[in-house]
Design a protein that fits this description.
The chain is mainly beta. The chain has two helices and ten strands, in the order H-E-E-E-E-H-E-E-E-E-E-E. The longest helix is centred in the middle third of the chain and has 6 residues, at 54-59.
Length: 140
């Protein structure tokens, strides 16, 4: 969403700097002229995603970078990032999921706000991925 900022309407997605070999990215390119990153904020292991953290930023219409860890192929812990774009509520208007884009798989995923784990798709390949921090992306 560009909020009608002319300079962002035609910015190409291929300017996103994803390094496939290291599974990392950096904050570079044309977007840095129009957006800034908030502080990386840890989320306690027992805390859920709610208005005090990720959901609060999404309510403010900010995208949110989600940092988490998962079990790597060698059995060790590895860090991974996703981009949260919105959240969903159930029929009782209770928070049901955070929607995020995963750059490694290219999939849109649903994250349980209680457990901070991917619940859909069921075959998500990053074993035990769990969010442990977030960073808001704010349009300047």
């Amino acid at each position: 969403m560009t909020r009608n900022i002319g300079r962002l309407k035609n910015v190409k997605i291929d300017r996103y700097f994803w390094k496939d070999d290291t599974q990392t990215t950096t904050w570079k390119g044309p977007v840095t002229n129009e957006a800034s990153l908030g502080t990386l904020t840890p989320i306690a292991s027992a805390a859920k995603l709610d208005k005090s953290n990720v959901i609060g930023q999404l309510i403010l219409r900010n995208l949110v970078l989600l940092r988490g860890t998962y079990t790597g192929s060698g059995g060790g812990s590895a860090t991974h990032w996703m981009l949260a774009t919105l959240y969903t509520n159930d029929s009782d208007n209770k928070l049901s999921a955070v929607v995020a884009n995963d750059p490694w798989t290219g999939w849109q995923v649903l994250i349980n706000p209680q457990t901070k784990r991917v619940v859909s798709p069921a075959n998500f390949p990053l074993a035990d991925f769990k969010i442990d921090a977030y960073q808001a992306v704010m349009l300047d």
